[in-house]
Automatic annotation (TrEMBL):
<dbReference type="GO" id="GO:0003676">
    <property type="term" value="F:nucleic acid binding"/>
</dbReference>
<dbReference type="InterPro" id="IPR027417">
    <property type="entry name" value="P-loop_NTPase"/>
</dbReference>
<keyword id="KW-0539">Nucleus</keyword>
<keyword id="KW-0067">ATP-binding</keyword>
<dbReference type="GO" id="GO:0016787">
    <property type="term" value="F:hydrolase activity"/>
</dbReference>
<dbReference type="InterPro" id="IPR001650">
    <property type="entry name" value="Helicase_C-like"/>
</dbReference>
<keyword id="KW-0227">DNA damage</keyword>
<feature type="domain" description="Helicase ATP-binding">
    <location>
        <begin position="38"/>
        <end position="206"/>
    </location>
</feature>
<dbReference type="Pfam" id="PF00271">
    <property type="entry name" value="Helicase_C"/>
</dbReference>
<keyword id="KW-0347">Helicase</keyword>
<dbReference type="GO" id="GO:0006281">
    <property type="term" value="P:DNA repair"/>
</dbReference>
<dbReference type="InterPro" id="IPR014001">
    <property type="entry name" value="Helicase_ATP-bd"/>
</dbReference>
<feature type="domain" description="Helicase C-terminal">
    <location>
        <begin position="270"/>
        <end position="415"/>
    </location>
</feature>
<dbReference type="GO" id="GO:0004386">
    <property type="term" value="F:helicase activity"/>
</dbReference>
<dbReference type="GO" id="GO:0005634">
    <property type="term" value="C:nucleus"/>
</dbReference>
<dbReference type="InterPro" id="IPR011545">
    <property type="entry name" value="DEAD/DEAH_box_helicase_dom"/>
</dbReference>
<dbReference type="InterPro" id="IPR050474">
    <property type="entry name" value="Hel308_SKI2-like"/>
</dbReference>
């Protein structure tokens, strides 16, 4: 396993380095330093890289006074990134604003802008019509694999195509005056072809994970390691309920990924009902609840302040269980995400909206897989879900448990 042994490049501001040190990040992985060095030396090239984690990639452009656009797929992801970058860049008096909701800002008031995909497309159109497109120095597209999304990928493609066209029409410009594209994702398909599309952009790929994952598959009542036919565990009851109970009693934060909103709620309530029945038989269940009683009460009060009256939400929350899907309001989802980050919620049942970049790391991820229909599990969504398990700084090991009854298809997808 690769260790973080390299310090930050010497061109990174000492104030920015201090910020990361306060977060417990004093060193970079070798691949991170390689990407940063490549980005600094090849300023005339676009850059696409695929790797599980990253840190500190764009400060140098912002320090020149050029504007930087960060493009993220979802509002919750964008808000989280906005707060992180604002806390970091204010150390060097670099203004960062968000283009996430209905608000808009004067281009003279910011250097960095954190945007959702549609807002970024609108902002680039505005900069072209108002003739300040040349003030943009870099566009950073996180979750670059979204360019292949059937509904939203076109927004990314059109925006980046305008950058490529603008650069080519102004080919006489010096390198530092061209707009640079940085694409990032842990799961970019067709990586080399994307690099070719971006005018021969530099392609970097890192395949390691700082924390090893144990991959298993449950077929019926038997658990096997992926790639092995040997059964090393059998379940006498519902494996999902059994694993959730083990996680709760062992204080192992667990994400259960479900294909539909209705099924997510039903699963969360089933787990909570099982915990309610188990309390009569196991004193350790009540002990675990008492340990986080204050935290769960704080989450409950927060939900009520935002007008949440959903009985299912409150019934599950009483047992340290929650569900997360697009049917909840933004404020409700943020309360639940906060509760999971602070380890008051141990079991979180979620739809795929949570697998696309929200930083909610878990020690165990369980997928109740669906291999047919519009919510079918694909290799791309599988890798996104895998990324939630065993995140650096949050766990020492990760366990991933896909669950299905279709042997051939699921083994094929997971390989």
């Amino acid at each position: 396993m690769e260790k973080a042994t390299c310090r930050f490049p010497n061109w990174v501001s000492a104030k920015i380095v201090d910020f990361y040190a306060e977060q417990g990040i004093n060193y970079l992985f070798d691949w991170q330093l390689d990407v940063l060095t490549e980005a600094n030396e090849s300023i005339d090239q676009h850059l696409i890289f695929s790797a599980p984690t990253s840190a500190g990639k764009t400060w140098k452009v912002a320090s020149t006074g050029k504007k930087v656009l960060f493009v993220l797929p979802y509002i919750s992801v964008a808000r989280e990134k906005l707060h992180q970058i604002q806390r970091c860049w204010r150390r060097d008096d670099i203004a960062v604003c968000g283009f996430i909701g209905p608000q808009a800002s004067n281009p003279n008031e910011w250097i960095g802008a954190v945007c959702t995909i549609e807002k970024a497309a609108s902002l680039t159109n505005r900069s072209l019509s108002e003739e300040w497109f040349n003030e943009i120095g870099m566009i950073v597209v996180d979750e670059m694999h979204m360019v292949f999304d059937s509904s939203r990928g076109a927004h990314i493609e059109h925006m980046l195509s305008k950058v490529l066209l603008w650069n080519s029409m102004n080919s006489s410009l010096k390198n530092k005056e061209k707009i640079r594209i940085i694409g990032m994702s842990a799961t970019i398909p067709e990586l080399k072809r994307l690099g070719e599309w971006l005018e021969g952009g530099k392609v970097c790929e890192a395949n390691f994970r700082p924390i090893n994952l144990d991959n298993h598959i449950i077929i019926g009542s038997e658990m096997k390691r992926i790639g092995s036919e040997e059964c090393f565990r059998k379940f006498s009851e519902d494996p999902l309920i059994t694993l959730a109970t083990e996680s709760f009693l062992g204080n192992q934060q667990t994400l259960i990924m479900i294909s539909s909103k209705l099924e997510a709620e039903r699963t969360a309530l089933n787990i909570a009902n099982h915990f309610h029945e188990l309390k009569l038989l196991d004193d350790s269940m009540m002990e675990r609840l008492r340990e986080r009683a204050d935290g769960l009460l704080f989450i409950k009060n927060g939900l009520e302040r935002h007008g949440c009256k959903d009985r299912n939400v409150m019934a599950a929350l009483a047992w340290g269980v929650a569900f997360h899907h697009a049917g909840l309001t933004m404020e409700e989802r943020e309360c639940i995400e906060m509760g999971f980050r602070e380890k008051n919620i141990i079991i979180l049942v979620a739809t795929s909206t949570l697998a696309s970049g929200v930083n909610l790391p878990a020690e165990r991820v369980i997928i109740k897989a669906q291999t047919r229909g519009p919510s079918a599990l694909t290799s791309l969504s599988y890798r996104q879900m895998v990324g939630r398990a065993g995140r650096t700084g949050h766990a020492t090991r990760g366990e991933f448990l896909p669950r299905t009854s279709l042997v051939g298809r699921i083994i094929y997808l997971y390989n």
